[in-house]
Amino acid sequence: MGEDNKETKVVSDEGAPPKRGNTRFAFACAVLASMTTTVLGYDIGVMSGATIFIQKDLHISDVQVEVLVGIINLYSLIGSIAAGRTSDLIGRRYTIVLAAGIVFAGALLMGFATNYAFLMCGRFVAGVGVGYGVVIAPVYTAEISPASVRGFLTSFSEVFINFGILLGYVSNVAFSHFSLHIGWRLMLGVGAVPAVCLALGVLFMPESPRWLVLQGRLSDAAHVLDRLSATPEEAHLRLSEMKSSAGIPSDTTTANITPFPITNRGGSGVWKELFLHPTPAVRRVLISAFGIHFFQQASGIDSVVLYSPHVFQKSGLSSNNALLAMTVAVGLTKTIFILVATFLLDRIGRRPLLLASVGGMIFTLIGLGIGLTAAEHHEGKLVWAMGLCFSSILAFVAFFSIGLGPMPSVYCSEIFPMRLRAQGAAAGVVVNRVTSGIISMSFLSLYKAISIGGAFFLYAGVAAVGWVFFYGYFRETKGRTLEEMGKLFGFSKEEMEAEDDTMKTKEEGFGEAREMAAMAAL
Description:
Organism: Dendrobium thyrsiflorum (Pinecone-like raceme dendrobium)
Family: Belongs to the major facilitator superfamily. Sugar transporter (TC 2.A.1.1) family.
Mean pLDDT: 80
InterPro entries: MFS_dom (IPR020846), MFS_sugar_transport-like (IPR005828), MFS_trans_sf (IPR036259), STP/PLT_plant (IPR045262), Sugar/inositol_transpt (IPR003663), Sugar_transporter_CS (IPR005829)
Number of helices: 26
Order of helices and strands: HHHHHHHHHHHHHHHHHHHHHHHHHH
Pfam family, one: Sugar_tr
Keywords: Membrane, Sugar transport, Symport, Transmembrane, Transmembrane helix, Transport
Number of strands: 0
């Protein structure tokens, strides 16, 4: 079977039909889907500067600022947990529409907030929408992308998070000159604009072909794959692999067979397979997914991005305009280097890029800790310490963006089997958001307890542990199809035989479907 697949994939230059450029269509769909994460990025970026004005206008404490900044990560858990099940039931496409609508409502509520409680209500609504978006965008993109460019296209969700962060920083500067009462409300309310653009763009997107296969809508899946693939042969091969992964016999016609049962249709039983009775292979996938999500956030990226004005202030910078200008430099650096990462993921590979990224983060965090410790123990401005802090922060976000930043969304959308993908990815995002919430809601208290330099030394230690974990546990997925991941993650021979037995049993159930399809064709 493996040799047949290889023969199908390798087509001579003479016999291959001309490519139709359909990767451009997949590119456009990935861009539209990834726009859902722009709102998360915008919220991260805009809140870092908006809190300066919110704290003055609403007279709130540092603890309330911490909660306001970080609580959206916990609110987003509701959307993240529900996203897998929702997308399995109504489809990836309509889940994106739902996410856009919720985010739109949340942004308007924050923009019209009159007090702290009202603002927290808006944060809750927006957080639920963000939770949906950060799960469904990479899943949808991975499911429409050919293996050769999947890393490139799936990393778009992280690209748009960084683009959103940059927009948030620019919004801080643009609206900082308005009155105290109006400026921060405009900063938050403008977040509704990307949601409107997304809702309109989704009208031109197809449904995920893998979701269509799981629903038994084989002819619809074949039509979508024909639009997404470079050649008819590639479309046929991808459909065959999807049917095999879903437990549908390969000789089943492309007629729709919705009335007949499909593996894990609607996501039923997935949570049990993931957490109650996982096989060793599924357990390894879970540990890989949870590990990369945890270390992405526990290494302190939110402390740098969300609290960059506070960090720059501690290094010796005092002017509000200068603080906001430096945050724009952080956002611009993140955006540039995440764009570099999109071109390297499918060329260099996931593993070497990740190890280089985390290694660089360790040294830049140590440099930042040294600079902040020196500045904290010196009266007045210490020029070399200030320069070290600025350069370390920019280098840190550059190293983060080139590897560890985009890797969780890319990697976790690849490694789960098709039947577990939506809810497995959702579980990974839950770990990500919980860790992010803890880090962002504790940073001010942490640096008051152990000093701001000590906080970044602590993050450097966490990153070092992460590097060891990735070196020993992380497996390369570059160039592999989503259906090939089972062998990579060590599914046993017994598990493969059990899957074969399951497919044989299912074939009997599909007999009637094939007969009906044949009658319909006549």
